[in-house]
C-alpha cells in the first residue's frame, strides 16, 4: 500500500503560485492547493516507502525556491 503524506508548506511572500505550479509537475503529487492560515500550500504526496517519501520532501520540495518550511503529516489507515 502506498504511503500518503500531507505536506504543509509555508512560502515566502508572493511565491505560493510558483510553488503550487512546481508541485503539480511532480508525478508523486496526488493533489495540491493554496490555502489560508499559517501555511500557504498543502500538497498530498504518494510514495512507495517512507524512505522515498522523506527523500522526496528533502530533495525536491525543500529545494523549491520560496519554500520557507514544511510540516509533514502522514496518513494512516483508510
What secondary-structure arrangement, pairings included, does this model have?
Elements: E1 3-11, H1 16-24, E2 29-34, E3 41-47, H2 50-61, E4 67-74
Antiparallel strand pairs: 1-3, 1-4, 2-3
Keyword list:
Alpha-Beta Plaits, 4-stranded antiparallel sheet, globular, 2 helices, 78 residues, 38% strand, alpha+beta
Low-confidence stretches: none
Share of helical residues: 25-40%
- Main sheet: strands, sense, barrel: 4 strands, antiparallel
Which radius of gyration do the C-alpha atoms yield?
12 Å
Strand percentage, roughly? 35-45%
Describe the structure.
By secondary structure, the protein is an alpha+beta fold. It has a single domain (3-74), classed as Lrp/AsnC effector binding domain/regulation of amino acid metabolism (RAM) domain (Alpha-Beta Plaits). Helix content is 27%, strand content 38%. A four-stranded antiparallel sheet has the order 2-3-1-4. A hairpin with a 6-residue loop joins β2 and β3. The relative contact order is 0.33. The mean pLDDT is 95.
Amino acid at each position: 500500500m502506498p504511503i500518503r503524506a500531507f505536506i504543509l508548506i509555508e512560502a515566502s511572500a508572493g511565491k505560493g503560485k510558483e510553488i503550487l505550479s512546481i508541485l503539480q509537475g511532480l508525478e508523486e503529487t496526488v493533489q495540491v492547493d493554496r490555502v489560508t492560515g499559517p501555511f500557504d500550500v498543502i500538497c498530498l504526496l504518494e510514495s512507495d516507502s517512507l524512505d522515498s517519501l522523506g527523500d522526496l520532501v528533502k530533495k525536491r520540495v525543500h529545494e523549491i525556491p520560496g519554500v520557507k518550511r514544511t510540516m509533514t503529516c502522514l496518513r494512516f489507515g483508510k
